[in-house]
Amino acid sequence: MVRENTLTVNDLIYPMFVTEGKAQKVEITSMPGCYRYSLDLLLKEIAEVFELGINAIALFPVIPENKKDDTGTQSYNPDGLIQQTVKAIKQAIPEIVVITDVALDPFTSHGHDGLVDENGTILNDPTVEVLVKMALSQAAAGADFVAPSDMMDGRIGAIRQALDAEGYINVGILAYSAKYASAYYGPFRDALDSAPKFGDKKTYQMDAANAKEALKEIELDIAEGADIIMVKPALAYLDIICRVKSATNLPVAAYNVSGEYAMIKAAAQMGWIDEKQVILESLTSMKRAGADLILTYFAKEVALMLM
Ligand SMILES: NCC(=O)CCC(=O)O
Ligand SMILES: [Mg+2]
């Protein structure tokens, strides 16, 4: 009766991986229980999770090496993997909210989220131009929300303007506003084979030591037209979620990232923790910190637990 926060299935967004081909369901080694699905099997899985009450999914594409290039041209191919996948999902289950990732790292041969010059410097503004094309192609395919995860400056405003100009006035923007340069993304990069080939992402993602900078980043994204703002990762950044929540009236999302997932799975496999209780405690802590929405690879398991 006096409990202050309750985790429900409505809070959950399920990140899912799509790969080319047919009849593919390949488990990700460092993320046991998560799979790369080909479209046919992905549609079945989505039907199942929708039935369990999960209302939203976030899609990530696994792009074969031979389709990657220096500038990520496949990212805005109108018939690309993500675009085809979104079309098929919206046709099969129009009610499910489809969120697409806007960033170049799955598509670039170097694994960075942006275009890179000969010295290895990330080129912010030319990258934003590509991100705009990518977001428009996803909106054209039927995405409900585009989710720029690249951390380039000015991309939220540029994408909002382009979406409105092309008539996609009802497509929302979930902004990865405070995204830290985190070692907790390791297993995700295994899932997509997208680890950067040189350097790191510290010139565009945030320093783990900074908190005020997160508030500055969300302020900019809100001013540029974000509809939902995100803090990522979640568990090591609960203080940031809390500060961000008190600084805005927009919905706040937290990304319970792959490394957070893998740590719980590994300890549970060793028999060292009570998996179910640790999952529920972790996700509840994110709600307590102020998250309205949680992107989590545990979404399906949690939906089953909460039934
Ligand atoms: N742009 C999406 C991610 O970087 C996900 C990271 C993770 O789950 O580790
Ligand atoms: Mg920013």
From TrEMBL:
It holds the Pfam family ALAD. Keywords: Heme biosynthesis, Lyase, Magnesium, Metal-binding, Porphyrin biosynthesis. InterPro entries: ALAD, ALAD_AS, Aldolase_TIM. It catalyses: 2 5-aminolevulinate = porphobilinogen + 2 H2O + H(+). Pathway: Porphyrin-containing compound metabolism; protoporphyrin-IX biosynthesis; coproporphyrinogen-III from 5-aminolevulinate: step 1/4. Mg(2+) binds at residue 217. One of its GO terms (molecular function) is porphobilinogen synthase activity. It comes from the Bacteria. The active site is at residues 179, 232. GO terms for cellular component: cytosol. It is an enzyme of class 4 (lyase). Its EC number is 4.2.1.24. One of its GO terms (biological process) is protoporphyrinogen IX biosynthetic process. NCBIfam families: PRK09283.1. Belongs to the ALAD family. Catalyzes an early step in the biosynthesis of tetrapyrroles. Binds two molecules of 5-aminolevulinate per subunit, each at a distinct site, and catalyzes their condensation to form porphobilinogen. PANTHER family: DELTA-AMINOLEVULINIC ACID DEHYDRATASE. Homooctamer. This is Delta-aminolevulinic acid dehydratase. It comes from Nostoc sphaeroides CCNUC1.
